[in-house]
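For reproducibility, we list the full input for the DI6 complex.
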Amino acid sequence: MRIERLWTGARLATMDPARSGLGIVEKGAIAQQGGRIFYAGEMGDMPQLDAAERVDCAGRWITPGLIDCHTHLVHAGNRAREFELRLRGASYKELARSGGGIAATVAATRSASEAELVASALPRLDALISEGVTTIEIKSGYGLEAETEMRQLAAARALQRHRRVEVTTTFLGAHALPGEEAGDADRYIGKVCEEMVPAIAAAALADAVDGFCESIAFSPAQIRRLFAAARRHALPVKLHADQLSNLRGALLAAEAGALSADHLEYTDAEGVAAMARAGTVAVLLPGAFYFLRETRAPPIALLRSHGIPMALATDCNPGTSPLTSLLLVMNMAATLFRMTVEECLLGVTRYAARALGRVGSHGVLSPGAWCDLAIWDIEQPAELVYRMGGNPLHRRIWRGT
Ligand code: DI6
Ligand code: FE
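The corresponding predicted structure, in tokenized form, follows.
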């Protein structure tokens, strides 16, 4: 049979659940047809294939293209000034309560056009892509009214016309209470549920709905209303849960059958057990933990003992994680959270795909999955987690090319 492209002489970390651990194949080959993987495995076991193009990888390692499953990549402006204030002792919560924080980025984002949002996001996207990212999730949440939320989501989708990357979008209207709502969070959540979710669903602008469950954001009761609205429009949900305090957000997310519960620094044993029962992915964000100088780490040992899939992401945002390196995220997760190399690599591939509801098609090297590859100049997979700075990416392949 004739196929489009064949990579040979590679070592593969397939992340294939049918193999153990990283799913390593020492003498591997990958065949690509129509943008999807036709074969991935031992060269010796490969059927006879006539390839239009052959690439010898000279012993390099191939992983699935990396997936950044939690970002706020599209926004205007930055918060370097606020960073300086935090260095002088102000806390993130204090800045948020005094009208800075998310509100500052909302003001900048509301006055930016879609083209301006795209232009300012591209350098951040390029930084991620340069390290092998092939799929990225991008949230709204800096508009906090229908028009800007939709413009942010449209800008996120538009990035796919500028770069060879897949973008999934998440509506995060329940990120913060905008100033003009005069402290009435219930009324604002009503608008999110009755106006924004239906409009965004009708325009097919979002793949999921997310919220921020926190004392400085929305209560569990308000998040329940949000999740009910998402369900009415058949949209899957995710949650920023237990990042700064324990409002039992992980439990709430699990009970709603959420794809993922994200952050989890303050999650308790009951929340973890509920996530295990529901199959909710834990998305861990060590960049925000680091940048806020948080001291309480997510309950990694508990998540591990319950067999909960742990994903890792940049949380790229201007306030708590101005970070555009998924390689550095892995190093932080290993160093700060004591995650293993294997957990880190699965966290930016197979389990990141699962956090986006894309099981089997993304984040694995197996037949039928998209042929999104990262080819690395390394001797062993641990190097991807071990280094701080530096970038061993040799080639990034998206949909077979
Ligand atoms: N948690 C975070 O860390 C970001 N959003 C959220 O819900 C912070 C967003 C910001 O400060 O701009
Ligand atoms: Fe976030």
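The pocket of fe (iii) ion (ligand 2) is lined by residues 70, 72, 240, 315, 317 (CB under 6 Å). The mean pLDDT is 97. Both points were considered when choosing residues for closer inspection.
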